[in-house]
Amino acid sequence: LQASDFQFFLQCKMVLSSLPPLPTPPTSRGSDTDIDYYGNGKYKRHGGLLDTLHRWLAFHGKAAVAGFIGMTCLVFLIPPAKIMLYGHPPPKSNINKSINKYENNISSPNSSKSFSLTVPPCKSSPWKPNENLVGQCPGDLRPNPSAPTLSACATTCCQNPECISWQFRRDVGCLQGKDIRLGQEKDGPAAWCSDHPPNRWVGQYLKFHKTFHGDELGMTQEDEGEIRRRACDDETWNPKEQIGQCFGLGDVKAGEPSRSAEACRKACCKDEKCGAWQWTEALGCFYSKGMHGCQGDDGNEVKFEPFEGRRKIVEGRKYTDKRGKTWQQQLVLET
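RE: above sequence
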């Protein structure tokens, strides 16, 4: 050591020896007037926040650590473990909260409902699993008045080899027919059904339509240029012209056109071949040279209720989309 280091050591020793000794903590709790180790009026009952925390951890530290580890496992480890063990729960159909929990007697649209929870199975030709024909099937299924209830509709279709698909709703009753494509399926017959329940849309024609332009506005085919101009003008367009679902508009126009009704209308107006468009927030934008089979809106709220329906598995069908990949309907529980 150097001389300067030795002198510094001696100075530190002198300073420490000049400090008063720390008070010695009492060996017993004593009375309320006893002075504790920290100089407080009650033994180990007062002091600063850090002192209190230190004392609490000294007595409960192990329990606190165990609790923290338990909460961590509960939040971060248990849910993934459940997914690994059981997988994702199967999707639930929106029918469980809608009219398909009822079997409807349909002698009239206002007839009473009898309670029903399940669709009768078809053992001879099983229904295709994990799907429900909740949406419109424009003109491809025909009424069967001999089946006045949901159970009868399913049973008679099961027993009939010519019947592949069926639907039931209390305003239209039982609808039955041959095989259909559902949603995004591209293989199979031309007949098609929407995989979504009926919904309120916004939309408009850009070309002459007899009901909206002829009967209501007194226009003719010669006024088609004016019809398009008014439909594409920001001040005169009418998105509520067609609020019931229509068909024939092709696949969804992804991206910017699906952001809003106005964006969908503008995209249609930029396309010289576009004659009609529709948009809904849930599904996006659709437009094409025309649309047909429109649901309309006559004030009957039943029109916007989902159908209940099934179809038999058809041998040879792959149920694939336009990319050749297997397509499966996603059933969603209504909220």
